[in-house]
Specification:
By secondary structure, the protein is mainly β. Helix content is 0%, strand content 50%. It has no helices and eleven strands. It starts with 7 loop residues before the first strand and ends with a strand.
């Protein structure tokens, strides 16, 4: 997977198309990511002894193919190229050629 935690991504498909957010969690086995402020799911929690029931809103998982990394230079979505140099893998932006940390 070419996307990591804390990367800034833009949603390119689905109901939240066009939204930009940072990746909170990555699930490589499922090819899914959790993006801050995208795909908000509502969960009703039951009240227990000493606690009150409430409605909790939190971001849900979305497929990694529905997001693109935002280029740090142009601030537009871009594909990612992996370049190996002396055994070290670096991520390179296809649009600007900038190295992505």
């Amino acid at each position: 997977m070419k996307i990591k935690k804390n990367d800034t991504v833009q949603v390119i498909a689905g109901k939240d198309k066009g939204k930009v957010g940072t990746i909170l969690r990555v699930f490589p086995r499922e090819d899914r990511v959790v993006v801050d402020g995208v795909a908000i799911a509502t969960r009703h929690t039951r009240g227990t002894e000493g606690k009150v029931g409430r409605i909790v809103k939190r971001p849900a998982k979305i497929h990694v193919s529905n997001v693109m990394l935002v280029d740090p230079d142009t601030k537009k979505p871009t594909r990612i190229r992996i370049q190996k140099k002396d055994g070290v893998r670096t991520r390179i932006s296809v649009k600007s050629g900038a190295v992505i940390a």
